Amino acid sequence: MLSRALADYMEIAPEVAGALKTGGPVVALESTIITHGMPFPANVETALAVEAQVREAGAIPATIAVIGGLVHVGLGPERLAELAQMHHVMKLSRADLAFALSSGRPGSTTVAATMMSAALAGIEVFATGGIGGVHRGAETSFDISADLAELGRTNVITVCAGAKAILDLDKTLEVLETNGVPVVGYATDAFPAFWSRASHLPCPLRLDSAAEIASLWHTRRALGQDGGVLVANPVPEADEIPAGDMENHIAQAVAEAEAAGVRGKDVTPNLLKRILELTDGASLATNIALVKNNARLAAEIAVALAG
Ligand code: PSU
Ligand code: MN
Fold first, then answer.
1. Which stretches within the chain are classed as H helix?
2. Is any atom of ligand 1 closer than 6 Å to the C-beta of 287?
3. pLDDT for 24-35, tens place per residue?
4. Which residue range(s) make up the domain with 19?
């Protein structure tokens, strides 16, 4: 049950509320990937396919977005389709979630805002594609995603495919460690690089089953530790693009964005769009495969937690 103050700003879909009430498995899903991460109609098709993965694995999906002054937890296919075609949707991080609600503007939630919303709703597991991180050149731009601070403070297990190699992965792992975030490779020793199964970096921790991840979560909660657990799940082998093949495209996209003066919130969407063009759409197919793969693992973890 939401507090009365919160209920003015959050609407939980009946199916999601029902599962939460009985302690059933629920998986939160972000929406920035829909509005800023993929073109229409691949975005809505993917969002529906991702929800189907969660259901197949025995959990209830809750895609989260802000529409009409409410955080919707569980969008439903009509609202999903509407969001996927809307223009001028705000990309919401911690800094803008309340602004979108108080001003009535539509917004999609990034990893940070999805974690916040999930925690408010009482959802403990969340699946995304890749988290935001420390951008290349952050030593001068200071561009560090608010996702990393959120992971340090908000109690949600986040399943991702590592971080996009458009970022500085060494610095991203350093900041996660500073923020006290356990980064757990799922059945891998290497930190995954989104489109590629492995980066040049080892993953700090490793677990091989959903049950072990649930056990880590229970242990942290018993210790009263606040903050997230980041599960890094490599893209399936059949769908990956080897890191060597991606590097030239990434370097070109980053250089072009820099030359064009792209900044702030626009950086990640701009790079994703350019890389899609440079790979002739191959990066999109990989992106879709990895989000579905993450949704399935997140559902397995949610089932393990509920059991
Ligand atoms: N992964 C994708 N597409 C995306 C994102 C991740 O494949 O659009 C989004 C996520 O919502 C993530 C956000 O939280 O990019 C990070 O943005 P920024 O670097 O501006 O914090
Ligand atoms: Mn940024």
1. 4-7, 14-21, 32, 42-56, 76-85, 97-103, 111-121, 138-141, 146-153, 169-178, 210-222, 243-259, 267-278, 282-306
2. yes
3. 999 999 999 999
4. 4-306
249 lines ligand 1 (CB under 6 A): no
Question: Contact at 8 Å (CB) between 241 and 279?
Answer: yes
- Residue type, position 170, single letter: D
CATH at residue 175: 3.40.1790.10
pLDDT for the residue 106: 97
- Is the pTM higher than 0.90? The answer reads yes
Does the beta carbon of 136 lie inside 6 Å of ligand 1? no
Cβ contacts of 216-223, under 8 Å, gap ≥ 24: 216/182, 216/184, 217/124, 217/157, 217/305, 220/182, 221/155
Could you give the angle at the alpha carbon of 263 between the alpha carbons of 257 and 265, nearest 5°? Answer: 115
> What is the C-alpha to C-alpha distance for residues 17 and 24, in angstroms, rounded to an integer?
10
| CA-nearest residue, atom 17 of ligand 1 | 132
Q: Is 158 exposed, middle or buried (0-12, 13-18, 19+ CB in 10 A)?
A: buried
Whole-angstrom distance, CA of residue 108 vs CA of residue 265 = 13
Domain count, the chain: 1
Residue 243 identity? A
How many residues are recorded in the chain? Answer: 307
Whether 124 is catalytic is: no
